[in-house]
């Protein structure tokens, strides 16, 4: 089928010219962990959209919440002294599930806007603390914090940042806690400490009196579901406290149960000053993001900050907040987080680890309802493919052809299925991935790439 959207619709993160040579994949329906395209083909969505659809597609509770709220009050803003009931109720409910010190919430439409909101809050916080020169925000190589101008300046590699050439100052990148690539035969726990010390080195280089905050993803999501050693985050916390640097946990991917805890910081046992969230807060049913603010930061902004000169027309949109409430209530009612931690997460890990025997697989990592494997030229020697081999994309496309949606980050193949996935569906998913790996292997053999 020729895709009718091609004439006018510009897709995000897409080479439009390349897309015009083939059909776009038009998705028209979703139920549970499956989606269907316009040709009626059924696909197992092992990526939950883009790590959004935590409770699966087509949940009636969320649909009803949206409809009821649309009928009651379709929109009003929360600017300048007004509020809408669902925004107030959502903030109350979030206190039940976020870390104990996080008790105030600012709503945005997306994770990217949440990152920008963090910048505005952090700057204001240090101004009010009499240290306006504390402006630098440090993030990790290969992280993703969004696509607004500031958020984009925090993510990617140094090379990507240069290419983007964004008019943003006062940001610094440090190395990522990626053991498989940078572990250098150190014990993982030792590597975790070493990677955290890269933050200390950067703080000392920039000057502790100039560094405002460090932002990181508990598990680097879009970078390839890279799980840091357990020693990493506690050491990051120690360093932030030592130099009085605010600690920001980007929970846009890890939040709302993805790692088997409500938030990724809970999994790794650290206490952020601010958290950002998006995606899973509504299971992607409707756009919503936000920032959770710790008592330390909130007290300063509220008691001494005056007007916080920041917000969006749809901040705390009543329909989005009503859907988020229904989503969180559903997760609580069905014990989804506990299920990921104790049942489906361990089962996914057990089954995914079986792929380790495949001749294309060099390393495997799983955490909660996320998993990733590294494609290698030679599993015995661990020899990697060339950076520009595009082997990840090849495998992703073959998997799609097999009937499963996975994602590639370089040579890392990733999955993050809906948290509601059943054991039988995990079995089916592993079978499809295995078929995809087998076909990729034969394809690479034919191309003499092994
Ligand atoms: C960790 C992380 N933070 C922030 C964002 C940006 O969120 P959004 O696409 O909702 O703006 C993303 C997007 O993928 C992300 O992965």
SSE topology sketch:
Blueprint lengths: L15 H5 L6 E5 L2 E4 L4 E4 L2 H4 L8 H13 L12 H13 L4 E7 L2 H18 L7 E5 L8 H6 L3 H7 L6 E4 L4 H4 L5 H19 L4 E6 L15 H11 L3 E5 L13 H5 L5 E4 L11 E6 H10 L13 H16 L2 H18 L7 E7 L2 E9 L4 E2 L6 H12 L1 E2 L1 E3 L2 E4 L7 H24 L4
Parallel strand pairs: 3-14, 5-6, 5-7, 7-8, 8-9
Antiparallel strand pairs: 1-2, 2-3, 4-10, 9-10, 11-12, 12-13, 12-16, 15-16
Bound molecules: pyridoxal-5'-phosphate (PLP).
The CATH topology of the largest domain comes to Aspartate Aminotransferase, domain 2
Percentage of residues in helical conformation: 40-55%
Strand content: 15-25%
Average pLDDT reading: 96
Q: How many structurally independent domains?
A: 2
**Level-1 CATH class name of the largest domain:** Alpha Beta
Number of strands: 16
- Individual helix count: 16
**What is the 3D form?**
globular
* Uncertain stretches: none
In CATH, the homologous superfamily of the largest domain goes by the name Type I PLP-dependent aspartate aminotransferase-like (Major domain)
How far apart the termini lie comes to 35 Å
What would you say about this model in short?
This protein has helices at 16-20, 48-51, 60-72, 85-97, 111-128, 149-154, 158-164, 179-182, 188-206, 232-242, 264-268, 295-304, 318-333, 336-353, 391-402, 423-446; strands at 27-31, 34-37, 42-45, 102-108, 136-140, 171-174, 211-216, 246-250, 274-277, 289-294, 361-367, 370-378, 383-384, 404-405, 407-409, 412-415.
């Amino acid at each position: 089928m020729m895709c009718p959207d091609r004439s006018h619709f510009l897709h995000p993160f897409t080479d439009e010219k390349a897309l015009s040579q083939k059909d776009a994949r038009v998705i028209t329906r979703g139920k549970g962990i499956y989606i269907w395209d316009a040709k009626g083909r059924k696909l197992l969505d092992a990526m939950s959209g883009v790590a959004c659809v935590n409770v699966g597609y087509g949940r009636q509770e969320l649909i009803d919440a949206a409809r009821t709220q649309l009928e009651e009050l379709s929109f009003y803003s929360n600017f300048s002294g007004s509020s809408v009931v669902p925004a107030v109720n959502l903030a109350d409910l979030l206190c039940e599930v976020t870390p104990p010190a996080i008790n105030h919430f600012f709503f945005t439409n997306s994770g990217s806007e949440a990152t920008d909101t963090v910048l505005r809050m952090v700057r204001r916080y240090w101004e009010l603390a009499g240290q306006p020169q504390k402006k630098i925000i440090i993030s990790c190589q290969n992280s993703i914090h969004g696509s607004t101008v500031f958020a984009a300046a925090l993510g990617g590699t140094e090379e990507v940042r240069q290419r983007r050439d964004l008019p943003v100052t006062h940001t610094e990148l440090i190395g990522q806690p990626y053991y498989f690539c940078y572990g250098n035969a150190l014990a993982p726990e030792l590597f975790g400490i070493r990677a955290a010390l890269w933050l200390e080195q950067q703080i000392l280089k920039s000057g502790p009196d100039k560094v405002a905050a460090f932002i990181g993803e508990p598990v680097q999501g879009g970078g390839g579901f890279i799980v840091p050693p357990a020693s990493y985050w506690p050491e990051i916390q120690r360093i932030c406290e030592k130099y009085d640097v605010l600690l920001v946990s980007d929970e846009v991917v890890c939040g709302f149960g993805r790692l088997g805890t409500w938030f990724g910081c809970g999994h790794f046992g650290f206490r952020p000053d601010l958290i950002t969230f998006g995606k899973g807060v509504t299971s992607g049913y409707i756009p919503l993001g936000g920032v959770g603010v710790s008592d330390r930061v909130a007290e300063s902004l509220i008691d001494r900050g005056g007007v916080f000169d920041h917000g969006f027309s749809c901040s705390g949109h009543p329909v989005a907040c009503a859907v988020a409430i229904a989503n969180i209530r559903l997760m609580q009612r069905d014990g989804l987080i506990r299920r990921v931690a104790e049942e489906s997460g361990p089962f996914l890990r057990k089954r995914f680890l079986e792929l380790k025997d495949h001749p294309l697989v060099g390393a495997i990592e799983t955490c909660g309802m996320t998993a990733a494997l590294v494609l290698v030229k030679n599993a015995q020697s661990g020899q990697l493919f060339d950076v520009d081999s595009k082997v990840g994309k090849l495998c992703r496309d073959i998997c799609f052809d097999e009937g499963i949606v996975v994602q590639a980050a370089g040579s890392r193949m990733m999955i993050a299925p809906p948290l509601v996935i059943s054991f039988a569906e995990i079995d089916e998913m592993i079978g499809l991935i295995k078929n995809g790996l087998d076909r990729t292997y034969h394809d690479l053999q034919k191309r003499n790439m092994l």
